[in-house]
Amino acid sequence: MTSDRCIRIMALGFVMWNSRVAMADDKICYQCASPNLQNNWAITGLPLRPSTLKYDELCKELGDPAKELVTKTCSSSCFELLLPENGEYDVVRGCHSDFVWDEFKVTTNLSCHMTLVKTIEGKDFYAGTNFCPPVATIPCNKQFKTDDIQSAVDNENCRTDDVHTCKSCSEYDGSGSCSPSTTGTCKGVFCTKTAGTLNGGTYESRGCASFNPIGSNVCSWTDQTYNVSTGVDMALFPPVGARKKRAISMPFRANQCYCQGELCNSSPRFSTFLLSLFTVSFLVFS
């Protein structure tokens, strides 16, 4: 065997070995969302949406076929977001760096937070976020399985957050009033500040949120569309009438801002920031 051929074989073996090492080092997360969020992404509060994100009912309970929802090479924490809506749950799972701007990606160790949002007919509904370090074997972002939320509530590694008093007000296109001196208040885990445009009109608000998908006290730009239900109409389809919901799509362009602490969204410094999460509280939790 010539020396050149030996070198080529050794080089090929080195490349193949490196490929196996790289595959073994791939850090994986579940990356998916509830189908309902495909047309209602803005309620998540996440500024970015991966173009390859899969919308699948499997994302809620992560049964055995959910292995098809795994993605690879996560450079940040895996995360999951739990949202109660209309007596049910929606979820988002993925590599956090795919859903936020680079400077906001979370790379911490385990950080799980939940809060009780409301009780409907004796059933408690929670909102929550979970960040966990990705590994190369089994995705870690599987804390919130919607068929067994109580297991997440009971998990000692998942903390129930304290609720704070926040300033609460809104102003839209010249109507209403919203400033740091407002007397209105609300209760939430996070206080928010909003100032931007909604459906072409200027909007500003201060309020509360039960979760923070960005993971830190920051402001982050978002450009989304809210689909707001206007109730039901009667649409006649033979042989009987059928109820049909109507919705209005409203462009929402702003920065999302969060802080934690009593009345933290009333400070003059905070008033220089641009906008936040008023519709998440209104659409998801009302």
Mean pLDDT: 76
How would the global form be characterised?
Answer: globular
Distance between the termini: 76 Å
The number of distinct structural domains comes to 2
> How would you classify the helix and strand content by structural class?
mainly beta
Care to count the β-strands?
A: 17
Widest β-sheet, arrangement of strands: 3-2-6-5-8-7-9
Give the percentage of residues in beta strands. 35-45%
The biggest sheet amounts to: 7 strands, mixed
Spans of at least 5 consecutive residues whose pLDDT stays below 50 are 5-24, 229-245, 270-286
Q: Element order, helices and strands? A: HEEEHEEEEEHEEEEEEEEEH
Q: Work out the helicity level.
A: 10-25%
Total helices: the number is 4
Radius of gyration: 22 Å
Could you describe the 3D structure shown?
The structure is a single chain. With 286 residues, the protein is mainly β. It folds into two domains: 29-160, no CATH class; 164-285. Helices cover 14% and strands 42% of the residues. It has helices at residues 3-25, 58-61, 149-154, 278-285, and strands spanning 29-30, 32-33, 54-55, 70-71, 78-85, 88-95, 111-120, 123-132, 158-160, 164-167, 169-172, 175-177, 185-188, 190-198, 201-209, 219-237, 240-259. It has a seven-stranded mixed beta sheet. The protein has a six-stranded antiparallel beta sheet with strand order 12-11-15-14-17-16. The relative contact order is 0.15.
